[in-house]
What we know:
Elements: E1 2-8, E2 12-23, E3 26-37, E4 40-47, H1 55-74
Antiparallel strand pairs: 1-2, 2-3, 3-4
Amino acid sequence: MNLSGRVDDxxxxxxxxxxxxxxxxxxxxxxxxxxxCLGGDFAHEFKDSQIFITERDALLHGLREGVVWIDLExxxxxxx
Length: 80
């Protein structure tokens, strides 16, 4: 199952996609964050750190983690 969303901060168009995969004990999300901006395109991919019993919970948590990552990048809390 996949779910994606978009964030526009005025300087870049961000998108986040969460895809679930079966894991021992449930489901885990693979998260991909991309940005299109004047400085060039950017992509970052990572796995969620938690395993969830339901695929829906894994998917929603993965999407939330991607949006939090975007927020941290926009606020310059992290720099990649």
